[in-house]
User: Fold this.
Amino acid sequence: MGNTGTLLHTFLEEKQQTPLEAGAGLTAILSQIAQAGKIISHTMRQAGLGSILGGTGNINVHGEAVKKMDIYANNAFKKSFESASQIVAMITEEDEKPVIFSENLSSGQYIVYLDPLDGSSNIDVNGPVGSIFSIHKLEAPATNSLSTGKQKNEDEINASLLRKGVDQISAGYILYSSSTMLVYSSGKGVHGFTLDPDREEFLLSDENIKIPKRGKTYSVNQGNYQKWFSPTKRYIDHLLEHAPDDGRPYSSRYIGALIADVHRTLLNGGIYLYPGEVEKPEGKIRLLYESAPMSYIVEQAGGKGSTGMERILNIQPTAIHQRTPILIGSYNDVSLAEEFMRNE
Ligand code: FBP
Assistant:
């Protein structure tokens, strides 16, 4: 399809020929996401010089201290979407309630789920962070399901936004690290684009990314070991056993940003886990704008995304900010982890 160095927009247009991409609508939305990503990347690259680092002093719906960059990134996407007539609603980590673009209700059919800045704990220490996005298309114009007229109350609107991961038509992430990369899929493979800071353009750098069937690294916050259920402890103990014939022990790698740990896993293989804990069986990672889009990408590359008990993309959400345990990465690694999780 494209050659290395192909402009993102050109690649998307080439790809939109196939019906799956639903034409111009999705290409326009992915272009708006890329545009917001360029703005955030530009600011991140000089964050230490301005006053954009640090907290706002507020606590978000998740009980977490909000970073200035969280809000900056959230607003950058909102601004970019305002001019997108296709988008009718946006669910984002930083807003308790869905953001409805009522002016687009009659025409638009797309919903975007967003983690504007994942890995917040890395922002002030110049560590890798990223934006995660998931795109769904409503079956019919949104006037039926989302119009805030008297006939629809908030619960009904939320219910129509609680969509399974399998219904995503596209998902991806933008990694702000040594370079800025946009990685996405629309159901036909996973493709990576690197931002050329001179031209301010995303250029194709990794076409059709495939994750190795098995890896040599595991990625988990081991500091939570005592909080885990026994099957999780047994699985990690198994990876640490001295068994060179079986490629063990695995090496530990943990950047503390889901997006960066999964990106490494996507390229090198292995497994990232944020398991459930005895006190918090649902774990920490949010389903709609973290686990589901990352699982969509990893599955498209030949890997797996699981709670340990079930495929993440099959989960029917019940709340817009719900969390799920997540085991994600190489097919063989996640399959083995599931075996441990299912043997109480
Ligand atoms: P947010 O930063 O978007 O809240 O995401 C959650 C997250 O930061 C993941 O990116 C990361 O993998 C995990 O939490 C780190 O959690 P912990 O500090 O408990 O290991």
